Amino acid sequence: MRRLCRLAELPDPGSARFDLPDHPYGYSLCLVRRDGQVYGYLNSCPHTDSPMDWSPGQFLAGDGQHIQCALHGALFEIETGRCVAGPCRGDRLTSVVVYVDSGVVYLGEDFE
Question: Given CA atoms 73, 75, 78, 79 in this order, what sign does their dihedral have?
Fold first, then answer.
């Protein structure tokens, strides 16, 4: 079980990036909090496999309603990771299980 952050450190709505340098593939994660829920995805656009954040941890579109890829502007539903606009329309972000326990956000064991 890997601790990512305190829930209070993740604004609602808001996003954060978590690098996992010890993971075999060197992934980073995109975490988004909205309406009290936390969603986790690999920080990798399905269109190009490139990182999606505008600057480290900034994943949300200006309206705060979608995750937006900085490279080509694709928009993804926060709750499902499904692309609703852009060159990868209909594709999905790779979800990662995250959970909150006692005010702390953890990475699910299936990703470790």
Answer: negative
pLDDT tens per residue across span 3-59: 999 999 999 999 999 998 777 667 899 999 999 999 999 999 998 888 999 899 999
Tokens of 2: 């890997």
Q: What angle do CA 49, 54, 60 make, to 5 degrees?
A: 95
CA 38 to centroid of chain Cα atoms = 9
> Considering the entire predicted model, what is its pTM?
0.92
User: With contact defined as beta carbons under 8 Å apart, do 30 and 44 qualify?
Assistant: no
Are 78 and 61 in contact, with CB atoms under 8 Å apart?
no
Q: Which residues contact 60 (CB under 8 A, 6 or more apart)?
A: 13, 14, 15, 32, 66, 67, 68
DSSP conformational letter for 58: -
Cα–Cα distance, 34 to 15 (Å, whole number)? 9
Residues 82, 75: Cα–Cα separation, whole Å: 8
Tell me if residue 89 falls in helix, strand or coil. Answer: coil
